[in-house]
Design brief:
The structure holds 2 protein chains of 2 kinds.
Chain A lengths: L1 H7 L22 H15 L3 E12 L5 E6 L4 E6 L1 H4 L11 E11 L4 E11 L4 H15 L17 E6 L4 H13 L4 E6 L7 H13 L4 E8 L13 H9 L4 E5 L7 H5 L2 E3 L2 H45 L2 H48 L2 H44 L1 H6 L4 E3 L18 E5 L4 E5 L2
Parallel strand pairs in A: 3-5, 6-7, 6-8, 8-9, 9-10
Antiparallel strand pairs in A: 1-2, 1-4, 2-3, 4-5, 11-12, 12-13
Chain B lengths: L1 H23 L4 H24 L3 E5 L5 E3 L9 H7 L1
Antiparallel strand pairs in B: 1-2
Helix pairs in contact in B: 1-2
The chains are: A alpha/beta, B mainly alpha.
Chain lengths: ~475, ~80
């Protein structure tokens, strides 16, 4: 359109003054006239043409228009595609691509060039979608958006799970079904989203942004059930990829197709083949941490059991050392002993007491019944009498003994050396008082002897 | 909620440290028992935290508001989920 307007601005050239009439056979046209005629002819004849060729000299202009050449072995055809048409293109035209173009042929009068104004372009052979996919994939990959280092782990404790999908499809039902079956306590926040058709990619991107604003969402599932490649196409769009990359929490892509990957799969933190697989992954993450905690718990128990066993063994080995070996046995025998004793004590105590009580009772009975009292009082009288007799007899004996004692004591006195000394005798000892000197011959002149007197002692020198 | 999550993570980290220390087995028995007690407490806390989350399904509408999901989404076992509330 713009191009046409542009051309029409050149129309004043058409209105050049009429030349002199010539012969009827001779009709002279201006360049512009001819060009316009050619243009009209071409535009009428080739207003909707399909042409196949290879792209070369491909140039994107700042205006957003694309200029290129289509060629085959023998010919070249200038081509242009305006920004408005380019916007709908799934892929980016590049040199060397073999394409099929649809458009109208027109003439750029100023240069006298004809060209095809393309309304539509598709890769020849491979589908446009395929080309577009590979181009976007390469671009995002070059940006590093597929790097493993970018992938975030799923939360160990998923609090809120954001889900971007359609409420009508099987996807949401599959997810809920899995969660129900496994019975984890999970909080789902679903953003109903159109996932196919026109502008589905924009809708998905907006939904992701909305979920990103919800506090506490710590994992997001974005996806849909299976379908044709066209149905799934929104997940190959750049806007979806960019939105996934920007999410503050890890994203699981869950587009229902087992074999191929979508662009969303590449940029997501985790890829699930189906929506229910995505739900399984979230639960698995939670169950994994649950069993991990259990294993930690078991390990604390195991290690404390080992520590206790070691301590017990140590105690036992101490036990076996000679000084201590007998202790438990001794203690045990003491305990047995004490038990026995306690038992015996009680037993014997009771028995003995009972016996005694019985005996006492017997005795009392016999006392009272047998006239023992009388016998007792007779005995008492007799005892008193006997006592008197005994006393005098003892007195007599004592008197006799006393006399005897005195005699004996006197004799003893005489025999005692002290008694001898008392009578004036003295005892002569050697110098160190170890032997009595019985014979003067046994002394030498100058020897010292000791002489014990009745009172005191003399130290004398033999002459 | 964030705080709980953080506590949860740090509880796991502490529990891991305790298990490691206990498994090295170089501590006196008394200290081991002390750690063991703490470990049991931590693993209980983690376990409870995992269990305490409630099951809920909400729909985020165009104006960014949250609403309970329609019952049609709850599929079967509706009575079960009602019991839980």
């Amino acid at each position: 359109m713009i191009f046409v307007n542009h051309l029409s601005s050149k129309l004043p050239f058409d209105k050049e003054p009429e030349r002199q009439p010539e012969s009827p056979a001779r009709r002279i046209l201006s360049v512009s006239e001819l060009t316009t005629e050619i243009r009209n002819l071409l535009e009428t004849r080739y207003f909707d043409s399909w042409v196949e060729g290879e792209i070369s000299n491909c140039r994107h202009w700042q205006s957003g228009h694309l200029y290129f050449t289509l060629k085959d072995q023998n010919s070249q055809l200038k081509a242009v595609m305006f920004r408005t048409a380019l916007r709908h293109l799934k892929f980016t035209p590049e040199d060397g691509q073999h394409v099929v173009a649809r458009g109208r042929v027109s003439v750029y009068e100023r240069k006298g060039e004809y060209q095809i104004i393309c309304e539509y372009l598709e890769p020849h052979g491979r589908g446009a979608l395929q080309i577009a996919f590979e181009q976007l994939k390469k671009r995002l990959q070059d940006e590093g958006l597929f790097d493993q280092t970018r992938k975030r782990p799923l939360p160990r404790l998923p609090r809120k799970i954001g889900i971007v999908t359609s409420l009508d499809g099987a996807a949401i039902r599959d997810i809920i079904k899995v969660l129900k079956r496994r019975h984890p306590n999970l909080h789902l926040i679903i953003k109903p989203t159109r996932v196919q058709g026109d502008n589905a990619s924009e809708a998905i991107a907006r939904s992701l942004e909305a979920i990103a604003k919800i506090q506490g969402v710590d994992v997001i599932i974005v996806g849909r059930g299976g379908g044709s490649i066209e149905d799934l196409w929104a997940f190959n769009e750049e806007s979806v990829a960019r939105a996934i990359v920007k999410m503050p929490a890890p994203v699981i892509s869950a587009v229902g197709h087992e074999i191929d990957f979508t662009i969303a799969d590449f940029v997501a933190d985790l890829r699930a083949a189906t929506p229910s697989a995505a739900a399984e992954l979230v639960i698995a993450a939670k169950e994994e941490v649950t069993s991990y905690i259990e294993s930690l718990h078991n390990r604390t128990q195991t290690s404390i059991r080992i520590a206790l066993q070691q301590a017990t063994r140590q105690l036992h080995s101490l036990d076996r050392r000679p000084g201590l070996t007998s202790w438990p046995a001794r203690l045990a025998s003491y305990l047995r002993h004490i038990a026995d004793m306690t038992h015996g004590l009680r037993h014997a105590g009771h028995e003995g007491l009972d016996n005694r009580r019985r005996w006492l009772h017997d005795l009392q009975h016999r006392l009272e019944t047998s006239g023992f009292r009388r016998t007792l009082s007779t005995s008492h009288t007799r005892l008193v009498a006997a006592d008197g007799q005994t006393n005098s007899a003892i007195k007599r004996i004592l008197q006799t003994r006393d006399a005897q004692f005195r005699v004996l004591a006197g004799r003893l006195d005489n025999l005692s050396p002290l008694g001898v000394l008392a009578r004036g005798y003295s005892i002569c000892w050697n110098a160190d008082r170890t032997a009595i000197i019985f014979d003067a011959e046994n002394t030498n002149s100058g020897d010292t002897v000791r002489v014990t007197l009745r009172r005191g002692e003399l130290s004398c020198e033999v002459k | 909620m964030k705080k709980t999550t953080k506590d949860f993570e740090s509880a796991i980290a502490e529990l891991e440290q305790i298990v490691k220390t206990l498994e090295e087995g170089e501590l006196p028995l008394e200290k081991s028992l002390e750690l063991f007690e703490r470990g049991v407490k931590l693993s209980k806390f983690c376990h409870n935290t995992l269990e305490e989350a409630e099951r809920r399904i909400e729909i985020l509408d165009e104006r960014g508001k949250l609403e309970e999901a329609p019952e049609t989404l709850e599929l079967t076992e509706k009575s079960d989920s009602e019991k839980k509330r």
